[in-house]
Amino acid sequence: METINARVGSLMIGPDAPIAVQTMLNTRTSDVEASLAQAVRVADAGARLIRLTVPAMSDVEALRQIHSRFRALGYTQPLVADVHFSPDIAMAAAAVVEKVRINPGNFHPDHAKARERFAALLEECKRHGTAIRIGLNHGSLGRYITERFGNTPEAMALAAMEWVKMCMDASFRDVVVSLKASNTVVMIQAYRALYRMMKEEGCIFPLHVGVTEAGNGDSGRIKSAVAISTLLSEGIGNTVRVSLTEPPEAEIPVAAYLASRYDSRVEAPQLPEHERLILEASCDYGKKLLDREIDDVSFPGIPDGDKLADELMQACRRRFTKPEYIACPGCGRTLYNLEETFDRVKAATSGFKGIVIAVMGCIVNGPGEMADADYGYVGEGRGLVTLYKGKEPVLRHIPQEEAVDRLVALIKENL
Ligand code: SF4
After folding, report:
1. Candidates 82, 325, 328: which one to mutate for ligand 1, based on the most atoms within 8 Å of Cβ?
2. pTM of the full predicted structure?
3. Which of 73, 173, 316, 394 has the largest CB neighbor count within 10 A?
């Protein structure tokens, strides 16, 4: 069995290295000053790998400036370009940063062309010593994946394996793979299936583990922790991102706690007492609930123990006591104040138990990433919002000031 350690600039990701904590900036990449300042803050907070969105070719030049100024300040953390919908941007970014993340679900709409362009990207990455992340998301598998494999966890793993095998055929080893979902059961099943398939293939590539669109606050932390800790406890996962709809600095101690709990080479972070309590409970009971070894939890001796039990049960999809929220963490594509809006949506919809509500930062990726949401609030830009019912945009160009009320009305009409 071959186990791969991927070289990403100064960082090694794989079984021979400590689990690496990473995050993604939520600034506009074109705003070089803001992005550089945030990169410095997350690096100082402990991020060992930092990702930035690269939505347009013009952002590649901004990326180059951020990269060189970050290095001039003495920071060695590799930077990662997050690229969707454009093999050309991925090629350009491969010459600038240490790693490029592409999503097979939206790399190119035509399957044959996607393979061809990916082969060219691997050659470009080899030339520059750049690593690749093959990052599939359950919500954005793309038509040629769902038509061939379906959209189950097993299908996600099969789709990822096609791209992994292309890397193997090209003798390209600096590869990290992720299969994220906002549904914790889907997420752990997908990673377990991929790990099994890689083992059967005789070659295990490093895995980036995370729950996508986990939301914020205790719910976002608990949802991330139950699923990530389940995988890490099984030896699955070499780098961790906890996606929260909060400033990226807030993600670092949560990810560091999870990494340090399952890898003695990672230093444990200092946490406030409440955060430590909910993360400990998530690690202690998450896997047992997800794998149905136990059917309930209770915390009679601690303040708000019932609330913690409800959060854990919902994160593990065992009992639903409130709406299920999907919210992206925001990035350089985000077109409004996502954190504040998400809190307003949660406050206005807390009574709608059992439905899934998504709050997404942009109209480019948001609708595709909402997966199985019943309703979606998606930023269009210029203060406007599109509201979705399932996958259908039912109300477009709604002024942001009215959008939360219109969302509530839409849900009530359909109850
Ligand atoms: S959905 Fe959110 S995180 Fe994803 S690209 Fe759009 S704004 Fe960024």
Report:
1. 328
2. 0.96
3. 316
